[in-house]
Amino acid sequence: MTETGPFRLPRGGRLIDRAYQLPFRFDGRQMRGVAGDTLASALLANGQLMMGRSFKYHRPRGPIASGAEEPNALLGLGQGGRFEPNQRATTTPLVGGMATTSQNCWPSLNADIGAINNWMYRFFPAGFYYKTFMHPRPFWKHVFEPIIRRSAGLGKAPTEADPDKYEQAYAHVDVVVVGGGIAGLTAARDAGRDGKSVWLVEQTPHLGGRTPTDHADGQARVDALLAELRGMANVTLRRSTQATGLYDHGYLLVRESLADHDPNAGIPRQRLWRIRAGHVIVATGALERPLSFAGNDVPGVILASAVRDYIDLYGVAPGRRIVVVTNNDDAYRTALAALDAGLEVPVVIDARSTAEGALPAAVRARGVRVLTGSAVAGIKGGHGVEAVKICAHSGSGQVTETVDADCVAMSGGWSPVVHLWSHCGGKLNWSDAQSMFAPDPNRPPTGADGKAMASCVGAAAGDLLAAELTGAQAEAATMPVWVMPAHATRKMKFKMWLDFQNDVKVSDVELAAQEGYHSVEHTKRYTTLGMATDQGKVSNINGLAVLSNALNQSIPATGTTTFRPPYTPLTLGTIAGEARGEIFQPLRKTPMHGWHESHGAFFEPVGHWRRPYCYPKGGESHGDAVAREIRAVRASVGTLDASTLGKIIVKGPDAGKFLDMMYTGMMSTLPVGKCRYGLICNENGFLSDDGVAARLSEDTWLVHTTTGGADRMHGHFEDWLQCEWWDWKVYTANVTEQWAQVAVVGPKARVLLERLGGKIDLSPEALPFMGWIEGEIAGIPARVYRISFSGELSFEVAVPANRGLELWEKLHEAGRDLNVTPYGTEAMHVMRAEKGFIMIGDETDGTVIPQDLGMSWAISKKKADYIGKRAQERSFMTDPGRWKLVGLESLDGRVLPDGVYAVDQGVNANGQRKTQGRVTSTYMSPTLNKPIAMGLVRHGPDRMGEVLEFPVAGQESYKARIVDPVFYDKEGSRANG
Amino acid sequence: MAEALAKISQVQDWGMIQIRADLTRAGDAIAGAAGVALPGQGRITTDGSRSLGWMSPDELLLVLPRAETAEALAALQDALSTEHALALDVSDMRAVFRIQGAKALDVLMKLCPADLAAMPEDGLRRTRAAQVACGIWREPGGYVLIGFRSVTDYLRGILTGAAAPGTQLSPR
Amino acid sequence: MLTLTCPYCGIAAEETELQPGGEAHLKRFGPGSTDEEFEAYLFARKNPKGVHFERWRHAYGCGKWFMAARDTATLQVFGTYSAQTPHPTPEIVAAIRAHRPDWQPDWTEAPADTPAESLNA
Questions:
Q1: Which of A279, A296, A802, C64 sits at 20 to 30 Å (Cα–Cα) from A76?
Q2: Which of A813, A835, A857 is the last residue of a domain?
């Protein structure tokens, strides 16, 4: 089968289908794999052992694992918007036509210039960056940082938008079993038999885990479990589904791969499940640890379990002549698998003084030499293994023998995968007997009921053999081996890799300990151990063991770093889910939104609403459009879509009393048929919202809020009603969207409305300023409020939302000869500023009280209490030096920039120029043909006529005179038409 | 091309009346005026044409044919005239969607954090659909989802997206 | 991410359906209160590691505020109850004591005479 690679074995391969060949490209070279291959197995079959370079030294790297823990074989996948960096070749299913690229090398994988770092390793120890780039200071910004930024990062970020779709889904499940190995399958079966709703999620596309590979009748045992599980209607099995994190109260995030293998399927690529699990059973197995010997990162040095995975699962030989090095019995299974596949095993190197179990015996019986008490002194070879140098484990590395080999299968023992258990607080115990951290069943993560929300089974629980389930015979103990040989020289430690991806070596961790980094969390950050994209799955335990030895303390005394989600990286698209493009966020649209769109409106966001900012015509600029709209309104008539204003019904025998508490002014005395402007403060006294309230009947008010304030004010009302005055008889209802509201504004407003006809009297006598009336306009039931935010004669007409567009269109039809002009929010803003009206969010910023704005007239002196009253009595609030609202008149005709500060004499404690005010609103007034502005200035109203200076970087300082904030129609006669 | 998981359609001809009152005192009067039985906590009752949903301990929602709204509102206001109560026509502030089809639940499971599979047959659940508030109840062949009018396009977008062909939630 | 059962709806809502409202059972001080009283009401909040009482609003639901008694360290929820009570109810106190025998209420007035159930009409 050479067409799928020279290293494809003639037989075997549990997961592959040799009948389906799949062509793919690696760094532009054409290769072939077969269906069922991972990218890693296909590359290995093609003899492509080297798959990338490391982060810091750019060392050549091949895969060391066969699963999610892989630190080395990270590739860039796809092209264009689908390009994704740092994808693990070991977990990526091979797809026909796939284009893959190696990373972290330039100009090519084989001749990488960055590898010069490798020859300089003595000058790049742990903490190198912190130590080197400190001095001289200016060098950081101009020399070091630009160079580091250019070479930092692993892989390249894609430059185009991701064309794939993603989705999320919620599930509520009694029991979620994570891991489809034999322990997980058994746990799912047991929970299924109990009648619970059960999900089993498995990260790979295959169920059964290691059991079929490692145990003689494993496949039969798995098949029997699967047969029973598939017959259970209450059990769901999800493959290619990765549990990424377990959070509070049984919240489990799970990523299901749907179309990773087929981008053209037209369905979402991945689905993020947001599961509420009654209980989570962690059956995530264990990960094999590397051994720390010199040269353990040379391509071809592979974890023993991975070597037999490649042979058994994919029919691929990682090498032809495989040396096994171990501290436990399990790795002997690799020797047997290699021999069964017809590969050579010249020697097994075992650090233990004896190896007498059944597995070593079986290996010896096949004629393989077993060297006990031995160790690897070094690896010969750069881009691949050429030979293994052997020494005594108890010594310091004197080579006793050199054995030719092209692959080393190493095993340093196993670590249970405890991530999910630990994410939400589950604690671990160190087992000396097995040299591993295992979950402490007495200290589980707890849920809302205070009881365990997760439990571990099988290897994840520390039962590595799971003999009851697998039928495995007992094995001899693992010997703790953290450095090989035991007394390795300092020079050897420079070549012993702990973290393969981030290039952290035994020497680095020892150096950190020597420099005083005694906390494992500090050492992690100083050395970057475990901080790469693999999050140290294979490196952390070895690293903290080395640290413990260096600190001369036990491993549990050192402890582990914190396990944090996600277990494997999640692509951002999955986290965003459906929230992209048109449905990135809900856009709120008024009933007239379509009309605005078709009439060229330029929209601005106000909360989630989109409101017309202006309606530019032809090639008109926004500024010109705004000026035209204002002139039209002031000269004749304009319409504003005011539907977004909040509208809240407040009804009940205590409604007046309640509104008196909510507003600074008096609402209970408002006569039926009238409107009153009011201010709402929070309990801190600060202005929170404003608007006009109308009394609809004896016990009913309709209060208007700002556009952004509707939900907030309704919530504020309900908060006080429910939590403070729950015996008051008041009901509220937020009816904002029930009504379309149109402000018809300008001297011709009444003329226009009267043209529409209807059963309603809009005369000044029937409807005076600050009154409201109900009736019918153009056959549409309407409520009309005579209120004005522009200073002009103004009617706000509210009609049922479904008829808003009809009203709007009729106004524009009937008013053509009046030059009726739709105007947007910017024209509204300018016109209110011309009149000196404040705007919540412009003149207020959460630290402004009504008194600052000269609005004492809106504060009732008679009331004993209202929300904010007590706070406004605090000394800080009554300080005469507070910044207060004034108008500002630019001296040189330039429009003051928004938000600029007026400077004062002297400097503050930080040496900064003192300030005495700032600009809060500033516009060019088309009505007055000059700039206008408002601002808050220290006791400003007492300083009329004074000139303030506003320095702006790079420009001549602005100067403005303090004036009255009402610039236009000071008498207010225009509101009467 | 595979079929969508469910048919998403907008309902335009329903009226809605929001009622707030002390339901223990005024429940019978409301049921009488509405012509539908008073629902229990978290439930919705129906006579086939009108439905009365429990929205909160002191709030109900009457759903009825649009043409009957004004008359029903008057009847309710009359029945509640001696009570501290609130009855309002809220027909125009809603968007109503039907999610019809065997996989309708799949569509909602992608958008709502609520356990809708466990909702009683006559349940009404207020929750959120992606980023907006909604209420959901069952009807023959699927579900009804109500939300706010201003986000009608958003609701249609997320419902249609969640119902995209080939995206059923059962394992493949 | 928490799940809390709304005492008004009887359904378990997850945190994204809820709005947090800070410490529960604050006593409001208005006009006439001293600066010290008002400062304490406005700014001083308990921040215990352990048993705590909080306000939550079932925002994407019935819209009602309710109270939750929970352990801020373990996130164990001892119960949720009506907002219309000046102190945690006797049932809540009993539920906390069942898990935290050493815990002592820090209020002195008589417990509320309105049990939570009576509000769930």
A1: A296
A2: A835
